[in-house]
Write a structure and sequence with these properties.
- By secondary structure, the protein is mostly helical.
- It has one domain: MetI-like fold (Orthogonal Bundle), CATH 1.10.3720.10.
- The chain contains 14 helices and two strands.
- Strands 1-2 form a two-stranded antiparallel sheet.
- A hairpin with a 5-residue loop joins strand 1 and strand 2.
- The N and C termini lie far apart (75 Å).
């Protein structure tokens, strides 16, 4: 090859290197990588959540005994639930459970978050102790509390007897059992929501508190005018998650199954527990699927209302 040909070949190579390479741009490659990272979660949610939900929604229009026998029922299961007194009673119990547990859990968790933010001795140990119940299995928690609250021989009633105080039947009195489950649930979940509130408090710039202190604002005024407005997104998240967990049974089903079995006199039978009984004790899978779909619909409506009223934690005054 001559010297002129070599020079021309080198010039053509330089020109090709100077041109942008054909293929995906940097932004497209980053998007592709992001989708690859999301793919396992999307597949897991699709297989283990979306598909069962769609199957449950369809199953609600059939009568099934769980052994492959299906009979089309149309809207029969949905009309039956509105005349089922036990199901309606379980919905009322669920509403009471949610409207008591959610604000109580919210207040206790926020108070603990404000407490553990203080500079006091052994605060790290206290924070760990408050969070520790949440890492224990709910089944174990239920068994331990059932043992502690047993009539006469339980440590709680023995302590009350020692103090000459009344000893109620914590799990045997229909007027007390639901409140007992609520209190145990607060004890179990307060550490988790406390950590969420602590994270929200840490995101508030210190300069706001310094400005409030210069203006002469006390502890309550600083909380009401600085902490509370800037904590609204975190508060919205806590409220939403606690409501969904309460209705769906993530925070109550295990405790009720272990501690009370829905009793006494169905006083602790939440909607999700009654659905479980219809499906896995009585074999009414179609009817249970219809009730579960109805419960999911209520949750979706409640979530949409919360988003509409608060704009995801950003209120009109923000």
């Amino acid at each position: 090859m001559s010297a002129g040909s070599l020079a021309k070949h080198a010039g053509d190579s330089s020109a090709q290197q100077g041109r942008p390479a054909k293929g995906l741009s940097r932004r497209q490659r980053e998007a592709f990588a992001a989708y690859l990272f999301l793919l396992p979660d999307v597949l897991g949610l699709t297989i283990f959540l979306a598909v069962p939900m769609l199957f449950s929604l369809g199953l609600g229009f059939f009568e099934s005994d769980g052994f492959g026998n299906f009979a089309f029922a149309g809207l029969g299961n949905y009309t039956q639930m509105f005349s089922d007194e036990q199901f309606l009673a379980s919905l009322r119990t669920t509403l009471l459970y949610v409207f008591v547990l959610t604000p109580l859990l919210f207040i206790v968790s926020l108070a603990l978050a404000l407490l553990v933010r203080q500079k006091i001795p052994l605060i790290g140990v206290l924070r760990s102790m408050l969070f520790m119940p949440y890492v224990i299995s709910l089944v174990v928690v239920g068994f331990v509390w059932r043992f502690m609250l047993t009539d006469q021989v339980g440590i709680v009633n023995q302590l009350l007897q020692f103090l000459h105080l009344p000893t109620p039947s914590w799990l045997g009195d229909p007027n007390v059992a639901l409140w007992t489950v609520i209190l145990v649930n607060v004890w179990f979940g307060m550490g988790y929501y406390m950590i969420i509130f602590v994270a929200g408090l840490q995101d508030i710039p210190r300069e706001y508190y310094e400005a409030a202190e210069i203006d002469g604002a006390g502890g309550w005024n600083a909380f009401w005018n600085v902490t509370w407005p800037l904590l609204k997104p975190t508060s919205f998240f806590v409220l939403l998650v606690s409501i969904v967990s309460s209705v769906s049974g993530a925070q109550g089903f295990d405790l009720i199954y272990v501690m009370t079995k829905g009793g006494p006199a169905q006083s602790t039978s939440l909607g999700i527990f009654y659905i479980y009984q219809q499906a896995f004790q009585f074999g009414h899978y179609g009817y249970a699927a219809a009730m579960a779909s109805f419960l999911v619909g209520i949750l979706l409506i409640a979530t949409l209302i919360m988003f509409a009223l608060t704009k995801g934690g950003r209120f009109e005054s923000d």
